[in-house]
Specification:
The chain is of the alpha/beta class. 33% of the residues lie in helices and 20% in strands. A six-stranded mixed β-sheet has the order 4-1-5-9-6-10, with helices on both faces. It has a two-stranded antiparallel sheet with strand order 2-3. The protein has a two-stranded antiparallel sheet with strand order 7-8. The longest helix is centred in the middle third of the chain and has 16 residues, at 81-96. It starts with a strand and ends with a helix.
Length: 227
């Protein structure tokens, strides 16, 4: 079975400047994803899609395929991850042929384990290419959150919420961004990285599931590296 890893890395990030190039444990953030992808030995090829020339240059050090600069239309704040992945795969398909699965690896998950990659691919193969998406149990629950408008609590809040004790709340999970494994045909048809009837892969480790999105996440990641 052929699996293509696609790494998405946009140049400009708003909440954490130059996010993909920040140093973490003496390496650029994106390098941690390069390393684990290569170390897993699970992919036919690893493709980087980016508009950052520095990252393209860095990818060559790890023998990562990065043949072009991502179009501007897919490098702004409004560009979706699924459109970016579809664009990259269409180029790859034309150049190298079809694959059975696309594994999206985002650079913001530097603590991703090789075993996680292998296990997700094993599930994908065992279940006839049914999509596999990594999830993490929610620490916070919607029924214990407040929605405000003009600094006022919306009326429905008191009627619908805060009537269930915390022990009785439903167990909810969130997509943690660590890994998306999907059949290219399904990705093109449904145009989402979280398609219908996907198989959840639960990540219980808070360290592994950390998604570095802002300064606070980065500070926490550096603390993890010291342990």
């Amino acid at each position: 079975m052929k699996i293509l890893a696609i790494i998405t890395a946009r140049k400009n990030s708003k909440r954490l400047k130059n996010k993909n190039k920040i140093l973490l444990n003496k390496k650029r953030l994106i390098e941690h994803t390069f390393i684990v992808a290569k170390k897993s030995k699970q992919f036919n090829q690893i493709l980087l899609t980016t508009d950052d020339k520095d990252l393209i240059k860095l990818s060559k050090k790890y023998d990562i395929l990065s043949p072009w600069i991502r179009p501007k239309s897919l490098s702004n704040d409004l560009a979706s991850s699924q459109k970016t992945v579809i664009h990259a795969y269409k180029w790859y398909e034309k150049k190298f042929g079809k694959v059975d699965g696309i594994f999206l690896l985002q650079p913001t998950s530097p603590f991703r384990k090789v075993s996680t990659i292998k296990n997700m691919i094993k599930i994908f193969k065992k279940n006839s290419k049914q999509s596999v998406v990594s999830l993490t149990k929610c620490n916070e629950h919607p029924e214990w959150m407040i929605e405000l408008k003009n600094n006022k609590v919306l009326p429905y809040m008191s009627k619908k919420y805060f009537k269930t004790r915390s022990q009785s709340l439903k167990k909810l999970y969130r997509v943690n961004g660590l890994g998306y494994l999907i059949d290219p045909a399904i990705l093109k048809r449904e145009k989402t990285l979280v398609p219908k009837n996907f198989i959840p892969y639960i990540i219980s480790s808070k360290i592994e599931s950390l998604d570095i999105d802002d300064k606070e996440d980065y500070i926490l990641a550096k603390k993890f590296c010291l342990k």
